Amino acid sequence: MNQKLARYPGVAFNFSQNIQDNVEEAMSGVKGENSLKLFGDDIGILAQTAARIQEVMGRVHGITDLAVFKETGQPNLVISIDRAVASRYGLMAGDVDSAVEAAIGGVAVTQILEGDRRFDLLCATSASSARIRKR
């Protein structure tokens, strides 16, 4: 599978089984049999250090599916609710938060089961999804 997926640059693929993943993630907070966590205030230095560690560990015989969990480059959208203004309109902060969540990423309304896998079914609020629901 690694050979077929190698055509996608910049993506690190890892293969395992569901129960194995759950146990390992519960123990370490990271998916994988072995993990190394770096802590610090400078995300740039942490990323450089992780790359150096990956390079060194990659030369160790027997290590497979070595990857670095990328913290950099992740987009963030911070929305601060002005509670005084919201209350003038009769809105609670939780209501505004729920509306923003649904508008941006959709809201999981149920789960779909496919074998032993579960997938969230999202309710999106965009105009295109509204047209689809009306059909």
Integer average pLDDT? 78
Placed side by side, the strands forming the largest sheet appear as: 1-2
Count of structural domains: 2
Helix/strand order, N-terminal first: HHHHHEEH
Q: Write down the oligomeric state.
A: single chain
Low-confidence stretches: 127-135
Cα distance, first to last residue? 39 Å
Profile the largest sheet.
Answer: 2 strands, antiparallel
Question: What this model shows, in words?
Answer:
The chain is of the alpha+beta class and 135 residues long. A hairpin with a 2-residue loop joins β1 (107-114) and β2. It is extended, with a radius of gyration of 21 Å. Strands 1-2 form a two-stranded antiparallel ribbon. It folds into 2 domains: 2-58, no CATH class; 83-134, no CATH class. The chain has 6 helices and 2 strands, in the order αααααββα. It has helices spanning 2-5, 18-28, 43-58, 83-88, 93-105, 127-134; strands at residues 107-114, 117-123.
Outline of this structure?
The protein has 135 residues and is of the alpha+beta class.
Helix and strand arrangement:
Layout: H1 2-5, H2 18-28, H3 43-58, H4 83-88, H5 93-105, E1 107-114, E2 117-123, H6 127-134
Antiparallel strand pairs: 1-2
Keywords:
135 residues; alpha+beta; 6 helices; 11% strand; disordered C terminus
